[in-house]
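Components:
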Amino acid sequence: MIRPHEDTSIVHGGLVSRIKRRQLLRVGFLTATLLATAELLGVFVPFFRVIKIEGLGAKVPAGKKADVLASFAKTKDEPILNTQGRFFLIHPPGAVVAAYRKCTHLGCATPWNKAEDQFHCPCHGSLYDKNYALVIGGPAPRGLDLFHVSEVNGALLVDTNPLNLLVRSDNKWNPKHIEVTDAQG
Amino acid sequence: MTAPRGPQPFPGQEKRLRLLAFVRQDSVVRVDKRVEDTAMVWPHLLVIEFIAAMIWSIGLFAIAALFNAPLQDHATFDCTPNPSKAPWYLLNLQELLLHMDKGLAGVVVPTAWLVFMAAIPYIDRERVGVGRWFTNEVGKKCAILAAIFTGVLVPFLIGLDAFIKMDRRVTDPVTGVKTGWPGYAEFASQYFPGGRELIPNYVIPIAVMIALPLLLVWLCKRLFGAGTREWMIAIWTGFVVTFLVLTVVGTSMRGPGMDLYAPWALPATHQCFAPPPGG
Amino acid sequence: MLDIPGQVWQRVKTGPLWRSLFRHGYPDSRKNQSLAVFTNVFLHLHPVKVRRHALAIPYTWCMGGLSFFLFLVLTLTGTLLMFYYRPTTEWAYSDIKDLETVVVFGQLLRNMHRWAAHGMVITVFLHMVRVFYTGSYKPPREFNWVVGTLLFLFTILLSYTGYLLPWDQLALWAVTVGYNIAQATPAIGNEISFLIFGGYQLGPNALLRFYVLHVVALPLATGFLIAIHFWRIRKDGGISGPL
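Structure:
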């Protein structure tokens, strides 16, 4: 910078070509800075995005279907709590369904109340029925949301991704929500 | 003669300059200030700092010895405390959540406020009044007006919201027909476009949050002839009072279900709703 | 015999070790008082002289200095707590319990850390209130006000990330409120909350993330901002005062 360029004269286009070179440098610096920033950002965001999910959000095994059905038969369809995946396995006619245990009112953890034979949310008293987990009282706007369930070699697998729910806005049981039937064998 | 090594000066600029210091005029020449106006840092300021640090160290020790930090049961997703509250310095936001859309109250409003707050010195650029509390008499009046204005309106709005939001329908035991005020969200869902979201959760809160500060600024200008600095004092006072009121209400007046209670009649938080044994 | 201690003291003060540490006499003259502030790395945050009204507690409330003091206390007590704390869902809670029951002075340190954290939120807020009402944000101090706004935000973030670490019911559900708010961010809510908390709910990832933010990232960033803040106070003409 201190040493002046040797040909300040008009040789080789002189001043004009130098200005162009400066512009080129300036644009180059700017591009390089932007690229470096973009690279950093591009690395940071995927780096902080967890891929291996544990607990809620993962595909949670919920035991052998035969065992689940046996439990339903023994306890008159009492829901089975899965703490890790935060869902209840319930037993509407003809199906095994996983209901996300998060009150659709304000998100409290909804417990099963054995004495009342229904789900009874302690926060604001929302009530859900035993077999369908649909609202039968209280301020909740709709039945408990359902997770997608699949059956792999006789074992139940629940996809607990809370962004991928079966939402029953009309608070009605719809047979199209059946993904795993309760047929034996 | 061989040319000396190293960088060469420009022709005609053999005398090389170095920048040793950059002195701003107002930091050197203080015509209006006498030397007596200053004090030596050692000992005068350092003594004050030392005493303040000692008092606070001892005070903090005493508080820490007297009061234990809270520690509840091990975290579990099986039991939701009712109400679930954020730390107290965020309860103002949580209080705001009750009155408008979640994203609006929790993200948009605080972000907008922080940006506005950072921009204050770029709006109010007049240097007059630096170093004087409230700048002048007008500033003081604006602060008092804003404190009263906000201190009355914010609790009133909270109360109003609690009052008209509640569903106060009575069901006729014979016909099963509900009569009475259904709460304004429900009312809006029946009679207004956008249902229970658009008008109750967006339009009304945004209108209130824009209109009331504007009204305050207008009042300050009209009543006291406030300039930029003075109405900025009014806005800031409004923020401070709102912040305090929302924090106090959120901390000491919200009980189970985030319902309003008198501070002295606040029920304890329902800690845990463990499923009954065997259930 | 009796003058031996005095002689030893004289020898020490004229010896090479002492004179390598302090390059001025006892600060009882103007020159030595100036040198005491000027040549000391900690004291030279100050100018040699301040304007007299800057000493007035009714003007400054001492709140800026006390915020810094609490930041130092929190750094010290926090570092000590780190020796007994593991940021995993298996251990966090029992480590805090151990701090309270089987670590000598553990309960006291935890209490100090907790109350100092609450105190810092208050002092920073009061400092902002003071700075605003005295018009100290006005030019040439505009940028320092912006830095101060960021410091207020960082104070709250530090406090909030620390709130989760005991991994008790209070922590879990208070931070869950924050999770739900982050989720309500317009357009990118689900993405951003998943990114920050490392999952669809608070769990081991969130605990570890908040820990790293709380003990490394945020204190470093806050320290940088504090340095800039102090530097700018000096460069913008010291503490504000009437023109």
